[in-house]
Amino acid sequence: MAACTGLPPFKHKTMKALHEMNNTQRAYEIARLFPQDLKALTLFIKSEIAHFKEKEEATRQAWPEQCSATADYWFDLIQSAEDIIAKFSVTLFRNPRVFADQFFYAHNAVFSIHCFVRYASSGKAPYLLRTAIALYFGEEEIVTIDFNTDKL
Fold first, then answer.
1. Are 133 and 30 in contact (CB under 8 A)?
2. What is the pLDDT of residue 5?
3. For the chain, which ranges sit under pLDDT 70?
4. 78 in helix, strand or coil?
5. Which of 28, 41, 47, 121 to pair with 138, CA 20 to 30 A apart?
6. Cα 42 from Cα 93, distance rounded (Å)
7. How far is CA 56 from CA 15, 51, 147, in A?
8. What is the per-residue pLDDT for 71?
9. pLDDT tens profile 88-131
C-alpha cells in the first residue's frame, strides 16, 4: 500500500532537444539554471554596450567589408540592448523569462549571444555557466574586429 504524502503527483516536463530549441528557449534554460548570475550577465552586456559605444568610430572604420552584417546593423542591435536595459532594469536579473524574452528575441539574440560568449571567455563566469553557454551557444564570438592601424 502506497503512503499518502498529501503532495500532488509529480508531472515530468521534458526539455526539448537542443537542435529543436530557438535562441530564446536556450537563453531561458540558462537563466533558469543560473538565476544568481543574471545580474552579472546583465551588467556584462551593459559593459559591452559601453565598450562598443566608446569605440564606435574605430569599430565602424575597421568593420570587415566581407561581413554579412553591416556596422549599422550591429550598432542598431547595441541600441536595442541598451533600450531593453533602460526599460526593464532590475527585472532582467530578477525574472529569467523577462531576461530571455527581451535579450534573445529575434535579432536581439545576435548581440546577446556575442555578449554571452565573451562573458564565458572573460574569466568572470563560473565554470558551470561557461560550460552551459558553450553547450547552448558555442564558443565563437559573433563579431571580431581587427583594428589594423593602417586603416585608421
1. yes
2. 65
3. 1-5, 7, 10, 12, 144-152
4. helix
5. 47
6. 7
7. 40, 8, 12
8. 95
9. 999 999 999 999 999 999 999 999 999 999 999 999 999 999 99
- Rounded to an integer, what distance in angstroms lies between the CA atom of residue 7 and that of residue 20? 33
For the chain, the distance separating the N- and C-terminal CA atoms, rounded to the nearest angstrom, is 79
Beta-carbon contacts of residue 93 (< 8 Å; ≥ 6 apart): 38, 39, 41, 42, 99
Hey, what's the cell of 13?
A: 516536463
Q: Which three cell numbers stand for residue 133?
A: 553557454
What local confidence, expressed as pLDDT, does residue 152 receive?
A: 40
Query: Contact 83/116 with Cβ under 8 angstroms?
Result: no
Nearest one of 44, 59, 50 to 123, comparing CA atoms: 44
Please choose, from the candidates 47, 24, 15, the residue with its C-alpha nearest in 3D space to the C-alpha of residue 137: 24
Rounded to an integer, what distance in angstroms lies between the CA atom of residue 39 and that of residue 32? 13
Q: Which three cell numbers stand for residue 103?
A: 535579450
| Nearest-angstrom CA–CA distance, 142 and 136 | 14
* Contacts for 23 with CB less than 8 Å, ≥ 6 apart: 104, 109, 112, 113, 137
Scan for cell 564570438, then name that residue: 141
